[in-house]
Design a protein that fits this description.
Layout: E1 32-34, E2 40-42, H1 46-66, H2 73-93
Helix pairs in contact: 1-2
């Protein structure tokens, strides 16, 4: 079993991003959303649950990366996994 040296950074050392970003679509909320193909589905459709789950996992990986020593061999591997998750999301959004 290999050992990895992971350095936990303080919040002051981690990159800062805006807390809130507002998006206005000007179409209102009718309880549906569009897939990449333009097909509209209910917001409670399983496809949006899957997209949200892959996004959350990617976010957690990004958070882990932000707290790691940039020289850690895990950083590159986790970034590769994030790229694969983007591919998964693209495939889910274009059924």
């Amino acid at each position: 079993m290999s050992q990895h040296n992971i350095e936990i950074k303080s919040p002051d050392e981690v990159k800062s991003y805006p807390a809130t970003i507002k998006v206005y679509t000007r179409t209102g909320d009718k309880g549906s959303s569009a897939l990449f193909t333009g097909e509209r589905r209910s917001k409670d459709d399983a496809v949006f649950e899957a997209l949200g789950t892959t996004d959350e996992l990617s976010s957690m990986l990004g958070l882990a990366i932000a707290h790691m020593d940039s020289n850690s061999p895990l950083v590159s591997r986790l970034e590769q996994i994030q790229c694969l998750l983007q591919d998964v999301g693209s495939n889910v959004a274009t059924p």
